[in-house]
């Protein structure tokens, strides 16, 4: 049997931009993506702590050490600059492997979105 488990989590990052006219996705500082083991194009669940919205899109890398976190396209309507988000990715694996799997959990600086 296979199960979906949390693969990566970036906990409590602030939205730095919302670009309705971009074609879609979430732009994430590439340093955060690397630390959380998130790859370009990977599906990301976004949980907005400010309004309760939960949306899914895909990750694209932003400039390193920038703290950028921009929602693009239709997702931009679901956030405001300054909202606090949790970003989660999931992986499917055998249930026995899942019992011992350790996800990448990242807790950036809440003011700057940079790695501590």
TrEMBL record:
GO terms for molecular function: aspartate 1-decarboxylase activity. Substrate binds at residues 57, 73-75. Heterooctamer of four alpha and four beta subunits. SUPFAM superfamilies: ADC-like (SSF50692). Binds 1 pyruvoyl group covalently per subunit. One of its GO terms (biological process) is alanine biosynthetic process. Belongs to the PanD family. Keywords: Autocatalytic cleavage, Cytoplasm, Decarboxylase, Lyase, Pantothenate biosynthesis, Pyruvate, Schiff base, Zymogen. The modification Pyruvic acid (Ser) is found at residue 25. Its cofactor is pyruvate. HAMAP family: PanD. Pathway: Cofactor biosynthesis; (R)-pantothenate biosynthesis; beta-alanine from L-aspartate: step 1/1. Catalyzes the pyruvoyl-dependent decarboxylation of aspartate to produce beta-alanine. PANTHER family: ASPARTATE 1-DECARBOXYLASE (PTHR21012:SF0). It is found in: Cytoplasm. Its EC number is 4.1.1.11. The active site is at 25 (schiff-base intermediate with substrate), 58 (proton donor). GO terms for cellular component: cytosol. Its main location: cytoplasm. The gene is panD. It is an enzyme of class 4 (lyase). It catalyses: L-aspartate + H(+) = beta-alanine + CO2. This is Aspartate 1-decarboxylase. Is synthesized initially as an inactive proenzyme, which is activated by self-cleavage at a specific serine bond to produce a beta-subunit with a hydroxyl group at its C-terminus and an alpha-subunit with a pyruvoyl group at its N-terminus.
